[in-house]
Amino acid sequence: MKIQEITPYVLTSKEKGSATWASMMVLVKVVTSNGMIGYGEAVPTLRVNTVFSAIQQVSKGFLGKDTDNIERNYHEWYKQDFYLSRSFESATAVSAIDIALWDLVGKEVGAPLHKLLGGKFREYVPVYANGWYKDCVTPEDFAREAKNVTRMGYKALKFDPFGPYYDWIDERGLVESEERVKAVREAVGDEVEILIEHHGRFNANSAIEIAKRLSKYRPLFMEEPVHHEDIEGYRKYRAHTSIKVAMGERLVSLKETLFYLREGLVDVLQPDLTNIGGVTVGRKVVSMAEAFDVEVAFHNAFGSIQNSVEIQLASVIPNLLLLENFYDWFPSWKRDLVNNGTPVESGRVKVPNKPGIGVEVNEKIIEELKANPVPLEVPEEPVWVVGGTWKNFK
Ligand SMILES: O=C(O)[C@H](O)[C@@H](O)[C@H](O)[C@H](O)CO
Ligand SMILES: [Mg+2]
């Protein structure tokens, strides 16, 4: 099949998601010469505008190509772009198109991705909850909502307990963060896993202090304890802590990932198929992690196409730890965007057997919610913060 049209869409509505960027989706629709349709998804963040135009640019490299040659098509873009390894916009654009191509090939042969990728390793993908702590500030707020998450059947949940602290944290911040984590541990009991999100925002000294205070609550992992590119910070953190480190959502290539694995900086890799290079690069990255004895917990914070394709890849790999899940905290239109939903039951998702990425898109929602890409406002609370938590409680 020849690639005939590639169309990006920005979807948004008044209904708020768990964070500013969680209220949007950047969708890519690919149509072939024989009228088949595949869908992919790109990352929004504050770059909705530039990602939208990156998709238009990257499309020029894919139009007229054959959907049978997914690997070669990716490589062709790698060759053309020159700055791909340095451009988040190009990486997410090519990822979205790649996901749509895998969707198309699955639909063409009538097989779900898991079948094309080696077959199911598991029928159910274990997930952890994120996005559940909107507007939580006090320990009581966190405890109440965490309890609710466990009542919904989740066995693992992630949260960022650090309020507005950035770069460094003082005694007051350490005390407040600890009170929140303690409250959550007490609310969920010993058997539910707690994952601590730092959003890559501390210097190593502060992150190490945090680890000292929080280790006793047995977090499953500490996510992005230091700034993403702070290699020396990661090394220092590793030298002073024994707690597991998770990272990877901002990685944009196979070889960038190799660096973190080979340096021994990561225990749990968190690749995101919507910026690592789609399924084509994503499947290599998770196999490489397997060889390093590193588990995988896919980053999955944006929309229902990302969620669907990640369920497929998560179902086939032996080294899966968990898949991130916002599904229950999506604005409702993100759930409605796909016809056959992927609900979470008892902390896991049943792997769909429908062709391609395993879901069908409801085009009516696209027509209703498509919007012109416009530069986003930059509010005091950064877009990556779960809404209403960028506050101190005392
Ligand atoms: O691991 C993650 O999920 C990310 O770091 C973020 O994507 C956030 O948690 C998100 O900002 C909340 O919407
Ligand atoms: Mg994160």
Automatic annotation (TrEMBL):
Pfam families: MR_MLE_C, MR_MLE_N. The keyword Transcription does not apply. One of its GO terms (molecular function) is metal ion binding. The keyword Metal-binding applies. Gene3D superfamilies: Enolase-like C-terminal domain, Enolase-like, N-terminal domain. Signal peptide: none annotated. It comes from the Archaea. GO terms for biological process: amino acid catabolic process. InterPro entries: DgoD-like, Enolase-like_C_sf, Enolase-like_N, Enolase_C-like, Gluconate_dehydratase, Mandel_Rmase/mucon_lact_enz_CS, Mandelate_racemase_C, Mandelate_racemase_N_dom. It catalyses: D-gluconate = 2-dehydro-3-deoxy-D-gluconate + H2O. Its EC number is 4.2.1.39. Keywords: Lyase, Magnesium, Metal-binding. Residues 139-244 form the Mandelate racemase/muconate lactonizing enzyme C-terminal domain. Belongs to the mandelate racemase/muconate lactonizing enzyme family. GaD subfamily. This is gluconate dehydratase.
